[in-house]
Amino acid sequence: IHSFPPLEYILSLLLIPSFPPSSYRLSLHLGDSIQSLTHGETIASSLIGGFVSGIVSTPLELIIVQQQNLGKSIPATALALVRQHGTSVLGRGMIHTCMREAIYTSGYLGMAPVLSDILKSKGSDPGHARFMSAVIAGTVGATLSHPFDTIKTCLQGDTHQVHYRSTLQTARLIYSESGIAGFYRGFSFRTARTICSVYILTAARDTIAGALGW
Questions:
Q1: Residues 60-97: pLDDT tens digits?
Q2: Which long-range contacts (CB under 8 A, 24 or more apart) does 208-213 make?
């Protein structure tokens, strides 16, 4: 960790995932010096940025899930939820969303470019490095984040808490009904989608970085 003002450090961690990471020689202003991010800092910053993004995503995803159940417009769904359960319902499943986003984001904004850098440094052509990093980062990200997404969806889909009341109770119920496999329902499709997303994002970032000379 570099020595510079805490506020600047926190803001940097939140902003880094929005820009090309160290593989494109991103420089971060640290006090009076300019220093590129290490691979570890790239992954850590994307993980923290992803976790924070979950705070914003949680109420939006809750409304999306409940909109499918209620068949109402987005404003009407949000209003109905608040009327029935209070404003606290908008945070239901937040920790799981934050954990899922932290893992997922660290995969496509952290692990993927880092792996691509490593592979290219060992002689792989850019296309092969991009593909392999997408497969590895996408698979790891989807595998580690999927259980959090499953529990989050169960909690947000049952705001009346008829079947799913808490994290521990939900996890126990899923396990008792389906075992470990219950936490990975829809895993194949989500993993394939994640790999494609990581590849497309990495390719777009490579193109933009090359055009801007990063």
A1: 999 999 998 888 999 999 999 999 999 999 999 999 99
A2: 208/20, 209/20, 209/24
